[in-house]
Design goal:
Elements: H1 2-16, H2 19-22, H3 27-36, H4 45-65, H5 80-83, H6 88-94
């Protein structure tokens, strides 16, 4: 499945990038251009939105259908300070993190 994403996503991104230039007579593109100003400010909005939707759908599918394999005795509660140690400047601004 990982390999399919590398094949399909660039093709979809190219197909959806700058839709005002690629599909100038499409009523859907005209509607989206009037709402999101695709022509001037956001010509690459559609591929990014589609990629975000795919990620969100994948998250919920994994959350719903993939079973946790770590035994319950070894599970630990989530802690922000441990996960934000990779980004110390962000950590210092937002949360009281300690190394």
């Amino acid at each position: 499945m990982w390999g399919y994403g590398f094949l399909i996503n660039p093709a979809l991104g190219g197909y959806l990038a700058d839709p005002v230039k690629q599909y100038p007579d499409s009523p859907l593109v005209e509607l989206l251009d009037s709402i999101f100003s695709l022509r001037a400010k956001n010509p690459f909005l559609l591929p990014n939105v589609l990629g975000s939707i795919f990620c969100i759908v994948a998250y919920f599918l994994v959350r719903a259908f993939v079973e946790e394999t770590l035994p319950e005795q070894k599970l630990e509660p989530f802690q922000w300070n441990r996960s934000l140690l990779l980004f110390p400047s962000f950590c210092k601004k937002i949360l009281p993190c300690g190394a």
